[in-house]
Amino acid sequence: MHMKIKPVVKGLLTFIPGMTRILPRGHTGGTNKASYCRDVWLKHLSMLQANGMRSLPHTLAELGPGDSIGVGLAALLSGVNRYYALDVVSFSNTGFNLAIFDELAALSKARDASLSENRISRIRNAITSPGSEHDGVTIKYIAPVSDIRSIEADSVDVIVSHAVLEHVVDLESTYRALHLWLKPGGMMSHQIDFTSHGTAEKWNGYRAYPEFLWKIIVGRRPYLINRQPCSAHVDLLKNSGFEIVSMKRIDRTDGIRRSQLSSHWKNISDDDLVCSDLTVQARKR
Length: 285
Known about the structure:
The structure is a single chain. By secondary structure, this protein is an alpha/beta fold. The protein has one domain: 3-Layer(aba) Sandwich (Rossmann fold). It has ten helices and seven strands. The chain has helices at residues 5-13, 19-22, 34-50, 70-78, 94-111, 117-128, 171-181, 211-218, 230-239, 270-274; strands spanning 59-63, 82-86, 138-142, 156-162, 182-193, 242-251, 275-284. The radius of gyration is 20 Å and the shape is globular.
């Protein structure tokens, strides 16, 4: 087993009272860059349209926006009117969101000259005054998400997440909440990253760690990665009342071998062992 020492040390440090507030957080993903946020939204949007979404969603919810709400802002610039940003920890701030938005607005105007200044102004007002409606445009940032009633049942047209669901601690409850919030026939699009996120040398090397060591690596952090394989997400989607309309996998054979798996993962399927990424789209039945 090729173990990385740094994740173990970080995990141990979290057991020291107050240390989690001192440890450097770093970036949560690429949402600190406007072009990344735009590309993520366009990727999910184009796939949703290819898989049966007939019109632009009026209401969009995003799980785990991260450093900024840039993906949601890109969606608002494209015509979405209500956006919910849902996170377990509050990361983004108004000043940074405005900076990302200004870049996104410039990118959008270069792409679509018909984008009005009035639309841009309404979104800016929604950023500086979240939760209030600004001539039809609303942004609501909810962190931490602790109550399933934070969003009205059957009220959301589309839910997206990008490299987020691999971090969720309680996946079963999360998928149930997503089903509750979506309108009947509403759609979801999730990209799920099954790699080690820096916790091991090999991309799937965390499956070689014995459970006692993994608990040390996680420490007292509110989340790290849940290690649930592709099949677990597929089963939860089906059991939660979703119809899967599209699945795109990325498989890799350069990870650890079956002989290197810890006892906890010895029965994992060959498909799950090699799946490093899944983009899945589903519709609420």
